[in-house]
Design brief:
Strand content: 15-25%
Order of helices and strands: EEHEHEHEHEEHEEHHHH
Radius of gyration: 17 Å
Number of helices: 9
CATH class of the largest domain: Alpha Beta
Strand order of the largest sheet: 3-4-7-6-5
Largest sheet: 5 strands, mixed
Shape: globular
């Protein structure tokens, strides 16, 4: 695996695993429908080489009108299925507009799955607007800034999340935007935990 981070972009060359291919297949549908998205949470550390399992991929998607969602639904359902409902009206109105999430997986295999949600809070909207590009074997995917991801993982505070934060910090330490890291830690009140677990 080869990683290069510069100018707010990460170039990553690696042998794709099954989870990577699952994510890439789903993202291609979003891109085909010109829908903005950002990958967040646990998958990011796996993407960059941390060896651990994950049952779900967290995806924040721009809030789109129902007609655009329904059109995209047809493309999604050609390769995936929606765990809570097979009705796009229910998925949109009962789940996404609640607001909660819907989950998509490959047909016949409920794990892993994509947790698909519209932005709920200001932080969701910020990360969607300020996502970073990763060129994964030459193909673009969009992820949360690593600096915010480190702070957010500390905020979640499980042993697995702290290890994710530690892994990302050690991997990218010399390339991180220190101002963004500092502001992210302060916003989530995790400065002390950063000093405790990562320094």
């Amino acid at each position: 695996m080869k990683i290069d981070m510069s100018g707010g972009q990460i170039r990553l060359d690696k042998e794709l695993n099954d989870l990577d291919r699952f994510v890439m297949d789903f993202i291609q549908i979003l891109e085909k429908n010109e829908v903005n998205y950002v990958l967040v949470s646990g998958y990011l550390s796996i993407l960059f080489g941390r060896s651990r399992s994950s049952e779900d991929i967290d995806l924040i998607v721009e809030k789109i009108p129902k007609d655009r969602f329904t059109a995209m639904w047809k493309d999604i359902m050609a390769s995936f299925y929606c765990l809570p409902t097979d009705n796009p009206d229910i998925a949109y109105e009962t789940y996404l507009m609640a607001p909660t999430s819907v989950r998509f997986s490959r047909r016949g295999a409920p794990i892993p799955n994509i947790e698909f949600k519209f932005p709920k809070v200001d932080l969701d909207r910020w990360v969607l607007k300020n996502s970073r590009r990763v060129l994964l074997n030459g193909k673009t995917i969009r992820i949360s800034p690593v600096e915010l991801q480190i702070a957010y993982k500390l905020f979640l505070n499980s042993e697995k999340d702290i290890e994710d934060a530690r892994y990302l910090y050690r991997l990218f330490a010399e390339k991180l935007d220190q101002n963004l890291l500092k502001s992210s830690l302060e916003k989530l009140d995790k400065v002390d935990d950063f000093n405790k677990y990562l320094k």
